[in-house]
Amino acid sequence: MSPALRIGATGFGLIAICYGFARFAFGLFLPQIDGELGLGPSLSGIISGGSFASYCIAIIASAVLAERIGARAVAVGAAIVAAVGMAGIALAPSPLILAIAVVVAGSSTGLASPPMAAAVAAAVRKSRQDLTNTVINAGTSVGVALSGPIALAIAGQWRLAFGAFAAVAVVLAFAAAVSLPASRGDKGAGGLPPLNSPVLRLISASFLMGAASTALWSFGGQIVSHQLGWGPTGTGVLWTCIGAGGIAGAWAGTLVGRFGLDPVHWTFLGLMSTSILAVGSGVATPAFALTGGLLFGAAYVMLTGVYLVWGTHALPARPATGLMIGFLTIAVGQTVGAPLFG
């Protein structure tokens, strides 16, 4: 098996678990969790914001650790943290314990991405790195797409779902341990990255996109529940549509290589704006809302792929740090956006 395929498959699965299950599935199950534990919209927003905040801290730590102790160790740690956090969600007896578990689970996503960029840079040939990175990044969409049918199959039993997700995360920890290279950054790597023009523009763009995305990631289930009267089945179908649309993000590297960063970036920002209006409009029909979910998934994962490529190109000698800058700023935007929308 080629390094691109081996690392790509492992990274795809790890990102699917950490992002699709440990981080974004909370929004899918939020109506059921709220009904059982009585969170309310304000506390729900604070918990979601706390998850995004823990991601910010974890992704900085992950970039540093990937350069110092290697990609394999950090990736395995990400899977273990995801398992612990999701087991905590499944067993949470109170809003306080739930909030702590959501924060732990959310931090796994910050740990997962930088070591995968480092592993790709170390073991995959240059011509296939952008494609491999964006395929790995698209694992988010598959995790989200799978969480929808799982929610439908178990009729809103969110504790059972998160328990199963935790078990899968343990399996991915073993897979990462045997499949990923124990690569470290250059000996001279470390310290603050240079704040040059490409990096500053990346920070601005990713912050605003992250803030906007929380409208659906944190509250998509609540929106369709209140405005369209949907129960767990409807919100599960919406999440499946978001995840299915996100599979298009695997082609971010190919599109950027063919058309350039700016055209791809602007096009999918426009699609994200359209999708949020489609789902959130008070006059939206069910078909309109589901179409909006498809567009949102495609736009979000495509844009994260754009920022991934942007960051690794801006800092080619430090790919984990380049990825960290864009993804961290997305999360900072989400940390600000979630409480505001709540």
Break the fold down into its secondary structure elements and pairings.
Layout: H1 3-23, H2 25-37, H3 40-68, H4 71-91, H5 95-123, H6 129-137, H7 139-153, H8 158-179, H9 197-217, H10 220-228, H11 232-246, H12 252-259, H13 261-280, H14 286-314, H15 319-341
Helix pairs in contact: 1-4, 1-5, 1-6, 1-7, 1-8, 2-10, 2-11, 3-4, 3-5, 3-15, 4-5, 4-8, 5-6, 5-15, 6-12, 6-14, 7-11, 9-13, 9-14, 9-15, 10-11, 11-14, 12-13, 13-14, 14-15
Our measurement of the CA-to-CA distance between the termini, rounded to an integer number of angstroms, reads 46 Å
Structural class: mainly alpha
Using only C-alpha atoms, the radius of gyration works out to: 18 Å
| Average residue-wise pLDDT | 86
Shape descriptor reads globular
Number of separate strands: 0
Q: How is the biggest beta sheet arranged?
A: none
Stretches with pLDDT under 50, minimum 5 residues: none
Helix content: over 70%
Assess the beta-strand content as a share of residues.
under 5%
Order of helices and strands: HHHHHHHHHHHHHHH
Number of helices: 15
Explained architecture:
With 342 residues, the protein is an all-alpha fold. It has 15 helices and no strands. The model has no long low-confidence stretch (mean pLDDT 86).
Primary descriptors:
single chain; 342 residues; mainly alpha; 83% helix; globular
Describe the structure concisely.
This protein has 342 residues and is mostly helical. It is 83% helix and 0% strand.
